[in-house]
């Protein structure tokens, strides 16, 4: 796991340093800095995730490989793509109202 810290977003709450002091330090005004290159050891993953999830301004982000969505199968020639659209005529079927 790798993380990054956006210091321009940080408001200095210090929650990250509370949960993961080995990865975040606070300056004299309480703003966070990332310690190291952002690589998180597996044993520290829970603490860093807690810091990431509890950051009130979402200044911490996980960097990872993008997982591509499942490949889309091509539509069969006989299938009408507009057949499943939600419209006023079938709104009761889809469970929405105007």
TrEMBL record:
InterPro entries: Fe-S_cluster_ET. Its cofactor is [3Fe-4S] cluster. GO terms for molecular function: 3 iron, 4 sulfur cluster binding; metal ion binding. It holds the Pfam family Fer4_15. Residues 78-98 are annotated as: Disordered. The keyword Methyltransferase does not apply. Keywords: 3Fe-4S, Electron transport, Iron, Iron-sulfur, Metal-binding, Transport. This is Ferredoxin.
């Amino acid at each position: 796991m790798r993380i990054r810290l956006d210091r321009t977003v940080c408001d200095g709450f210090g929650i990250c340093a509370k949960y993961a002091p080995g990865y975040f330090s606070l300056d004299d005004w309480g703003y966070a800095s990332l310690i190291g290159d952002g690589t998180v050891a597996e044993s520290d993953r829970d603490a860093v995730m807690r810091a990431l999830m509890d950051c009130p301004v979402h200044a911490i982000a996980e960097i990872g490989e993008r997982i591509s969505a499942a490949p889309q199968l091509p539509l069969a020639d006989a299938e009408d793509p507009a057949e499943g659209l939600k419209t006023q005529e079938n709104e009761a079927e889809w469970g929405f109202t105007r």
